[in-house]
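Bench notes, afternoon.
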Amino acid sequence: MAALADRVLSDPPTDGPVPDALLVSGELEPETVSRALSEWIGEGVVPWIVRPGRPEEEKNWIRVGAWSVLPSGCAPREASAMVGRLVGGIRRANLSNPLTGLPGNRVIRRILESHIGGSGYFVAYVDINNFKPFNDYYGFARGDAVIRSLASVLSSHLDRHFVGHVGGDDFVCIGRGGGFRKALEKGLSEFRRRVPSFYDERDRAAGGIETLSRSGNFRLYPFMDLTVSVIDSDSVLSVDHLARLAGLQKKEAKGEPHAFPLAEDVGMRAGDLLRVMVRSFSEGRCGSRDTKALIEACGLSGDRSVLPELLDVLQSDECPDLRKSAALALAGLPSEDVSESLISACRDRSPHVRKRAVDALALLGGPAVGPVLVEMLEDRSSWVRRAALRGVGMCGWKRALPILKAGTRLRGTGGSLDKNAIEERRAALDGLALISDPEASQIVSSLLEDRDYRPRETAWQTLMMLGGEEAARMAGHHIETSGLPPPGMELMRGEEMAPDSLRRLSVKLCGLLGKKNRCNMQVLITLGRLPGELPEACLDSLSDGLGYMRGKELEELIKVLDRKEVPPPSGRLPQLVGRIRSNRRLLSKAGCVSLMGWIARRGSVHPGLLIEPFLRHGSREVSTAAARAVLCSARRLMESEDRTD
């Protein structure tokens, strides 16, 4: 670790390794140090901490990019140890995403928070267009290969910058200046060159894959591409604001509408229209529902020109319903004025307005609004207290955990467990579900060990959403003792579970499947969400399901087997086709397309089996999917005969 203690780098090194972290004297000038560091470490993201200096300078250090300012009276040895712990934490966090080895959400959020507002950094959000249909079509293994490839390319080209993996096909890159943009462009170009190699030969020739869209229509998805939105960190107020700006840019790049020009539609400026309508309401010439609809439409439009009028409504003495709608609308138009007005609205005389103001603050305020939300836990309205508990978890405040832990055991007046107390507990559990901290799982698990705890079902749902080893242990115990999956099992996250835990849980889930079992759908959805391959012990139970399941259950089973790259069992397939031939309503049109896609990608059947009811199906989508399945099956059968000869 390199350290800057009592001098400015007037002659910064031009070679040598980039340091892991830096310790800077707080007696120096922030702007001067920032420039010197930029020259020394280039445009990379290197954590640096400031030793105690003048207290009034703390904000200036944070503004120019310092990660933290050590407390006053901190000895040099203690300061060095703190920086060392920071470096060790970053190294451990770099392994937080098992698929790519890149930093995950916790590290990304922390780094974003340290570089927001005046630090001169750029943040690039990168995601893959048409990745989901590719992943559904070819399976998770090839989809994971695509994500690993993008991670490798970004890490290689942006080796002096920060690259994080949000999850799925979303990545975040952080860097400074033109060098960052050039390196990013080179990385994106290299990935685009690689894309065709991920497709099979026949799909490369066709320019993409043919499969069902989300609306259930059969369509051609062209080769995957990248959408990149680059945000200047100087222009954002919080991490959540940054994410929303990036989302708008992504939609714009993809040609998706995210705002509509009200002025063009109605022939006058949206703010003028809103002012006229509010005045008409005050004079009794317009109903409250119509006025509320316009207020909320202005917020959803993304048209920032209406901000003054919306703020006027929120701060006025108009009917509480209008103020409530104004608070809701302002959540979509973040700015410093909006945040200040919403904080003031938290003291409104109407609990409905206070509740909406708390909701809006949680959405756009980021961790800075955590203390404000905690104050609202003392509000006399249970509705407001519930919103504050959810908001404390939503805003990403670091001190939320103990507050939410206490909230899960709240009692009503006089120590009784009344309806309001139960609902406030539920809100605290909802807040915990938004915190990615192993201790949150331990808190919820301890609640479930109390058989009289209420609301028990919400606690289970929260634990499943948190995932991890504790969720796997508790879910397995529930299955063993009750013979049923726990409530909310289909919400389970398995990314942070050990492989052995995943295998054991999958086997226990498959043991619940049966002809008359009402939990089949819940089990199948959960199996589809869990990462990794299916254990051998699960395959017989799932194959048996092809013989008795029907409708949505059968469709979900086919999707799970296809997603897990399990080939169609040769003995079960003719039986399934015979069932469908004798009962066309056994499987929907979308289910038939899924079945044909599974056969085309994973297995081989005698093509004659598919003439009826698939090749001659009345739906073009089904017959086209069946044609592909016939061609793929015929090719595999011929290849098999050639190997035999």
